[in-house]
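HOLO CASE FILE
Compound: 2-acetamido-2-deoxy-beta-D-glucopyranose
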Amino acid sequence: MKVSIVSTILSAALATASPHFGMASLDNWKPAGHGDFRGPCPMLNTLSNHGFLPHDGRNLTREVVINGLSEGLNFNVSLGSLMFDMALVANPEPNATYFTLDNLNRHNVLEHDASMSRSDAYYGNNHVFNSTIFDKTKAYWTKPVLDVTMLANGKLARQIQSRASNPNYTFTSSMEEFSLGEVAAPVIAFGDIQHGRVNRSLVEYFFENERLPAELGWTRPEKVISLTDISKVTEMIRNATSLITPSKSGSRSGSTKRDLHGGMFR
Ligand SMILES: *[C@@H]1O[C@H](CO)[C@@H](O)[C@H](O)[C@H]1NC(C)=O
Ligand SMILES: *[C@@H]1O[C@H](CO)[C@@H](O)[C@H](O)[C@H]1NC(C)=O
Ligand SMILES: *[C@@H]1O[C@H](CO)[C@@H](O)[C@H](O)[C@H]1NC(C)=O
Ligand SMILES: *[C@@H]1O[C@H](CO)[C@@H](O)[C@H](O)[C@H]1NC(C)=O
Ligand SMILES: *[C@@H]1O[C@H](CO)[C@@H](O)[C@H](O)[C@H]1NC(C)=O
Ligand SMILES: *[C@@H]1O[C@H](CO)[C@@H](O)[C@H](O)[C@H]1NC(C)=O
Ligand SMILES: *[C@@H]1O[C@H](CO)[C@@H](O)[C@H](O)[C@H]1NC(C)=O
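Model generated. Tokens follow.
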């Protein structure tokens, strides 16, 4: 009850009359209808479902993306602009000034194998939410509050599953960067950026409904989110993907020697 009152007040405050796509708000949510484009990115789909981005998923210009990310998630203008530049390459038209959510489905441009919630293109649909795949990721989300280790475990597991089964598995270093950003996104939007933690219920609700988790008590971040925040969480996830645990301090030269011996004589 309390949660819904809070979200009603908040969404009223957030509602913006846009000449292009009507009232955007946390309460105004409608999944894609016939003829609406959606893509592999749950966050952009979600912003379109709420009308923070065009509901039809088309004509996402720089201005539209900057405004949508700012109104929906309090993203800094320069961050919104950067994200637009990253997505724009998915539009195959030369010198395009917009992209559509459907452009993002092009395999191995931005969309990649071993996604957290989508099937590999090799097995069929690479952009619609797939609960079988998401269950595989969630198997590693073992506590009510996710930390970067659980998130990294889910990411690594998906890569191993994919590489072990998909003969066409592709995962370049630039895809690794996108993948890290995707894993970081729920922490940035719904969680604690400083400590790299996020309530699991909010993340699952978001993926499964492509809806901002306002009815679970989430509110738009009060502090403007900038590239520094994204970089910080991304680096925390990157660090957590290492399967090597820290060595004892001060044993650096000694351990190198031991390692060589171990390799030679075992
Ligand atoms: C896309 O949006 C821009 C800016 O709002 C507008 O000028 C343009 O006509 C739109 N294009 C299409 C194809 O809707
Ligand atoms: C937005 O980000 C830029 C570059 O990271 C920074 O210079 C600027 O201060 C930020 N603005 C706000 C309002 O946080
Ligand atoms: C795209 O932009 C480049 C550089 O400004 C220009 O040379 C080229 O003709 C443009 N292509 C189209 C199809 O507009
Ligand atoms: C979900 O992914 C699995 C594994 O790739 C695939 O077999 C299944 O057909 C997918 N389901 C849908 C509805 O696309
Ligand atoms: C298979 O891999 C190649 C090379 O990475 C890629 O171009 C192609 O899109 C992939 N196809 C599928 C269906 O995964
Ligand atoms: C996570 O959010 C849900 C929904 O608001 C709430 O019921 C739950 O207590 C939260 N969990 C933790 C560990 O804070
Ligand atoms: C990532 O690991 C490096 C090396 O241990 C460390 O210096 C850095 O502070 C870590 N980054 C974050 C964001 O935790």
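CASE NOTES: Residues 144-145, 199, 201-202, 216-217 surround 2-acetamido-2-deoxy-beta-D-glucopyranose (ligand 6) (CB under 6 Å). The mean pLDDT is 89.
CLOSED: yes
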